[in-house]
Automatic annotation (TrEMBL):
Belongs to the KptA/TPT1 family. Gene3D superfamilies: 3.20.170.30, RNA 2'-phosphotransferase, Tpt1/KptA family, N-terminal domain (1.10.10.970). Its EC number is 2.7.1.-. InterPro entries: Ptrans_KptA/Tpt1, RNA_2'-PTrans_C, RNA_2'-PTrans_KptA, RNA_2'-PTrans_N. SUPFAM superfamilies: ADP-ribosylation. GO terms for molecular function: NAD+ poly-ADP-ribosyltransferase activity; tRNA 2'-phosphotransferase activity. Removes the 2'-phosphate from RNA via an intermediate in which the phosphate is ADP-ribosylated by NAD followed by a presumed transesterification to release the RNA and generate ADP-ribose 1''-2''-cyclic phosphate (APPR>P). May function as an ADP-ribosylase. This is Probable RNA 2'-phosphotransferase. Keywords: NAD, Transferase. GO terms for biological process: tRNA splicing, via endonucleolytic cleavage and ligation.
């Protein structure tokens, strides 16, 4: 497949596995998994094409199970799933990329998950900047994860390295 085809298929797969499995006639299990064979039929793909999308994905958005028979998105869902990631101790600082226009609200109410299950935090400034840049000139916030962890807030980390938390209070944010 051409690089453009891989990106196009990755977007379709993200949409189906995170937001609208029903749009392809699929149903996710409680942890977000679906049989690869069902995905191939529903999206009209060969196994080789699917493997190319999974392997070639810039952010490793998709995970196959150990047997290679089921697939799920590693994070980013808006449909109810329990991904089952264990609580993990975060690094002292994490980062969140956003844009200027959201700042006034964020600095009052903190970070909220919006349509997704969790607030997504990045392990480094560069990644956070790229996340923010999807929406415009990026603004990066530093999250005092150490203070939140000390407050008893549970963090987890997705299979593709995104830190997930229910919310971040404004007092633990600093604009970089
Ligand atoms: C903002 C992509 C106003 C928040 C990325 C963000 C990431 C608030 C937007 C992943 C707010 C939500 C997630 C508040 C947060 N008031 N705005 N209180 N709290 N926001 O897309 O973090 O390519 O749901 O700053 O790389 O941008 O999909 O979250 O701008 O990892 O794999 O509300 O999505 O990964 O937007 O991105 P999103 P996000 P994928």
């Amino acid at each position: 497949m051409s690089p453009a085809d891989v990106v196009r298929l990755s977007k379709r797969l993200s949409y189906v596995l995170r937001h609208r499995p029903d749009s392809a006639g699929l149903t996710l299990d409680a942890a977000g998994w679906v049989d690869v064979d069902d995905v191939l039929v529903a999206l009209g793909l060969t196994r080789a094409q699917l493997d190319e999308v999974v392997a070639g994905n810039d952010k490793r958005r998709f995970a196959l199970d150990d047997a290679g028979t089921r697939i799920r998105a590693s994070q980013g869902h808006s449909v109810p799933v329990d991904l089952g990631y264990a609580p993990a101790r975060p690094p002292a600082e994490l980062f969140h990329g956003t844009v200027e226009r959201f700042l006034p609200q964020i600095l009052v109410e903190g970070l909220r998950p919006g349509a997704r299950h969790a607030v997504h935090l990045s392990p480094d400034v560069r990644t956070a900047r790229a996340v923010g840049a999807r929406r415009g000139p990026p603004v990066v916030l530093r999250v005092d994860a150490a203070a939140m962890a000390a407050d008893g807030v549970a963090f987890s980390r997705s299979a593709n390295g995104v830190w997930l938390v229910d919310a971040v209070p404004a007092e633990h944010l600093t604009v970089l």
